[in-house]
Write a structure and sequence with these properties.
By secondary structure, the chain is of the alpha/beta class. The protein contains 13 helices and 22 strands. It folds into three domains: 70 residues, Ubiquitin-like (UB roll), CATH 3.10.20.880; 137 residues, Nucleotidyltransferase, domain 5 (2-Layer Sandwich); 250 residues, no CATH class.
């Protein structure tokens, strides 16, 4: 099947006016498209007029589709054309550059979200915006995005004018910060955002460095805490076209859970605390080179050894590293099933902030404190409870799922046995699980490469029922029991 990207080029034949045909330039240009209505932006009136004063000629036009019968002109005789897919996460901003002429991904970039200076989690940033205004949060975000754009375009020796499509997938709050929209009603009942379906924007609307007529698309959200990143994840994993019931778990600062198939989708979300990203502990890091991604403990000496992303010197510990650490601590009797250290065990020391376990002590000492483990236990309880409550809401158990897809911070390097040991994931056979590093970014990238998926996004939003977890009594009742490691 011939797949057309979200923005593409084609050639049309233009004829100059004559005494027999005095049709105005823009109307003559539109007439070259036969049965398709074409919207021409004012900024291209002069270039079109100049071109059509010459001899009959073929012109290259860069287009995007507004719908099946209507296109919009983006550029005229543009050589290289590129698109960028963004996952605007609360911790990291990730992007992929797509050569739209070839419909191929060519570069990847990632930067830490500078908004962390205003709060490690979304709730803190919302409160900051409510008291100080959201403009500063918008500006630091868009500056970061523009820096990534400049870096990616420089990597292919292209100018801003060549960037003709940008797609954003982010949670509801991040999308609002992107568009500089107020967020004060999102964390307060009845939890209402400014907009669910932003749709198409112009680069100038948000201060984006791109072709002035570029297609800019923001994935729709379906609730205060279920955003466009979840919709993009549903798109990329394809659970909306499956017959069997699937589950998607996107775990980061928040946890989003999707259950469903090609007939229905139930979506819920809740704050897990920054347990699976850089807020994991004082030594917490994102999944960067040097982050400890795995910890193993020698059963005889009870001394830990660590593995890092990129096999370089440790700089801290990421989510998968924390999961493996807690699993190993429990397995070897260093913590009990409440996550509390068993006094007198090897490696447990008294430190400035209480009892701690020394996981590395070569070029730099790395400690994980008991209270950090307890915080993690609360976060993992929130996730497991949400998974069970969501399944129960449709009269099913987790065992009934055909597949469980894990993405977000947990999709990057998670060891299933460790996650099941501590009760973060249900104790099912490994064949039930699929790990996807960044389903949201993949969804945004897929949309750049296939314009027909705009219709799929519309269908996905129609399938979704949003379950508000903030006031769910079943969640409140089951949460305390999930804070323990299963025996």
């Amino acid at each position: 099947m011939n797949i057309t990207p979200a923005v593409w080029k084609e050639s049309i034949l233009l004829s100059k006016p004559s005494n027999e045909d005095k049709t105005a330039d823009i109307e003559r240009f539109k007439g070259a498209f036969k049965d398709i209505n074409i919207k021409v932006p004012f900024s291209l009136f002069k270039p079109i007029s100049s071109l059509m004063k010459k001899e009959d000629c073929h012109a290259s036009v860069t287009l995007c589709a507004i719908n099946e019968f209507e296109y919009r002109l983006i550029a005229l005789n543009q050589g290289e054309i590129y698109g960028i897919a963004f996952d605007i996460g609360s911790t990291n901003i990730c992007a992929r550059l797509v050569d739209l002429n070839k419909n191929e991904t060519v570069l990847y970039a990632q930067e830490k979200n500078p908004q962390v200076d205003f709060g490690a989690d979304i709730l803190s940033r919302m409160f900051y915006a409510m008291t100080h205004g959201g403009a500063i949060l918008h500006k630091c975000l868009i500056d970061c995005i523009n820096n990534i754009i400049e870096r990616l375009l420089s990597g292919v020796n292209a100018r801003y004018n060549a960037l003709v499509a940008v797609v954003f997938a982010g949670n509801t709050v991040m999308s609002h910060f992107l568009m500089d929209l107020p967020v004060e009603n999102i964390p307060i009942s009845p939890y209402v955002p400014v907009v669910h379906t932003p749709g198409f924007l112009r680069p100038s609307d948000i201060g984006l460095c791109a072709n002035p007529e570029a297609l800019v698309y923001v994935f729709p959200n379906v609730g205060s805490y279920v955003g466009g990143d979840t919709v993009a994840g549903i798109l990329s994993t394809g659970i909306y076209v499956q017959n069997g019931v699937h589950m998607l778990i996107d775990a980061g600062t928040n946890v989003e859970v999707v259950i469903g198939n090609n007939e229905w989708l139930l979506v819920g979300a809740g704050a897990a605390g920054p347990a699976y990203d850089e807020g994991i502990a004082a030594i917490g890091k994102g999944a960067y080179p040097g982050a400890i991604s795995n910890v193993s403990i020698n059963p005889k000496t009870l001394k830990p050894s660590v593995s890092t992303i990129g096999d370089v010197l440790p700089i801290g510990i990421c989510g998968s590293g924390m999961i493996s650490l807690i699993a190993e601590l429990y397995k070897h009797g260093i913590i009990n099933n409440k996550g509390v250290f068993i006094r007198g065990q090897t490696g447990v020391i008294s430190a400035e902030e209480g009892s701690a376990f020394l996981i590395y002590n070569e070029h730099r000492q790395f400690l994980v404190y008991e209270y950090e483990i307890e915080n993690f236990m609360s976060s993992k309880a929130a996730m497991l409870t949400m998974v069970n409550v969501m399944a129960g809401a449709v009269g099913m158990s987790v065992d009934d799922m055909e597949k469980i897809i894990i993405t977000g911070a947990l999709g990057n390097g998670i060891k299933l046995e460790h996650a099941k040991t501590i009760g973060l994931l249900p104790p099912l056979h490994n064949s039930k699980f699929i790990a996807v590093e960044n389903a949201a970014l993949e969804g945004a990238e897929l949309l750049l490469k296939n314009r027909l998926l705009f219709g799929d996004i519309y269908n996905i939003t129609k399938l979704i029922t949003y379950k508000e977890m903030n006031e769910d009594q079943t969640f409140m009742n089951e949460f305390p029991a999930a804070k323990f490691i299963p025996i």
